[in-house]
Every structure is written in structure tokens, then in C-alpha cells.
Amino acid sequence: MADAPIVAFDKTLLVRDACLCLHMQRAARVLARRFDEALRPVGLTNEQFSLLMSLQRPEPPTMGDVASLLGADRTTLTGALKKLERRGLAKVSVDREDRRVRRIALTAKGRTCLAAAFPMWDEAHRALEAELARINPVKLRRDLRSVASMR
To answer: What sequence ranges are listed for the domain HTH marR-type (predicted)?
Structure first.
């Protein structure tokens, strides 16, 4: 092992201080924990809330539409949906016109859960917006959307 290449410690510090990905991940984890805590009384995580909210549409969206909105791959989405299906909050069905397409719908139980969760999310979100007022949350959202749209 003595011949193994070594990354100099100054490079470690560079990544710690400059890596956009690391800083985004850290910020995302902090925010996710905050919203997980806020949504705990209804038994949802922030990820589950976002997924349920993405289903709140006039017509059930396709798996592809939801994956795109959430920035998730289909495998990750399928795993998250299975948990919601087991709880009776969402239902995946075959599209009537194209059997290759899967559509996801909120169930009545899912709509009830989402209605209970929304005020909790709203309160947590308002508190966060107030904390972030000094850094301009509108600009932050715009910048994050720009990052999310990168390919």
C-alpha cells in the first residue's frame, strides 16, 4: 500500500470548501430533515409529501411526468411509490390508450393525508422563507431551478 497514490490534504480542503455538489447535498439534507420533522405527525417524509403533491392534478400523471418533475429516475420513483401504494395513498395503473404507460393517482386516503399534511408543510415553509429572507429566497429558487435544468 505504500505505493498507493495520495491526494494532498490541501485538495481535501479545496473540495470541502469549493465543491458545489457537496454544498448542495448538505443544504438539501438540512432542509429535508426540517420538513421530515414537520410532516412526521401525518407519517410522511418530505420525499413522500413531494411525491403525493406531484400527483395532485386533474388527470393522473404518467410515471415519466412525475419522474421528470421530481428529478428522479424511474427506479427510484418506483421504490418510493411502492411505499405509498402499501399505505393506500396512491395507485399505479395501466394507461387506457397505451398499455406500456403507467399512470399514478392519489387515492381518497392519499388526498386526505395530503390535506392534513399541507398546513404542516406550509407552516414549515413560511418559517424557512422568513429565515432565508436575507438571502432572497426568490433568487435562490430561480438559481436552483437553473441548476436542476442542467443536463
So the answer is: 17-149
